[in-house]
Amino acid sequence: MRALVINCTLKPSPQPSNTEALAGTVIAALKGHGVEVDVVRAVDLNLKPGVETDMGEGDDWPGVHEKLLSSQILVIASPTWLGRPSSVAQRVLERMDAMLSETDDEQRPVAYNRVAGVLVTGNEDGAHHVISEITGALTDIGYTVPGQAWTYWHLGPGPGPDYLDDDRGHDWAASTGRAMASNLVHAARALSAMPLPAPPS
Asked: Gene3D superfamilies from the entry (predicted)?
């Protein structure tokens, strides 16, 4: 089983990413279940604006799309900015919109029988709103989002420290991340054993 984690931080490599640091706990938990994990730091790529799988020369999205189709588990990891998902997360979801019109050999949307979860960091509240926005988009595309397939970290409303600067709340976020990983893996196994059929015509 394979998983893809798309880190939607605004910080290009090699800058430290709080979102990447928390994602590391979920990645470790997934690997503990025997899952192979790929990580994409979307801001490092040239992801052209649009809602097509391939926007032409220089577009790096087709490579990400290929990883999506080879993964049974997807984790979108985003910081919170202005109480919303990052602009990079929005770009990723817009590019995933093309998957709505893509089907497999059995005429099922290509996101069917794949599971997804969400991870959020930020120093202000708004994590549940970000989780809701991203999971809503993923279910529209066709992903199955199991219950409690999320984790987040923040220290309440107002400006504050970053995840990498403060140890408070790490145990809770990591424990919730381990539960998230377990729920994703077991839901993916269930769908593999009993896949969703193509939608009725």
From this structure: 3.40.50.360
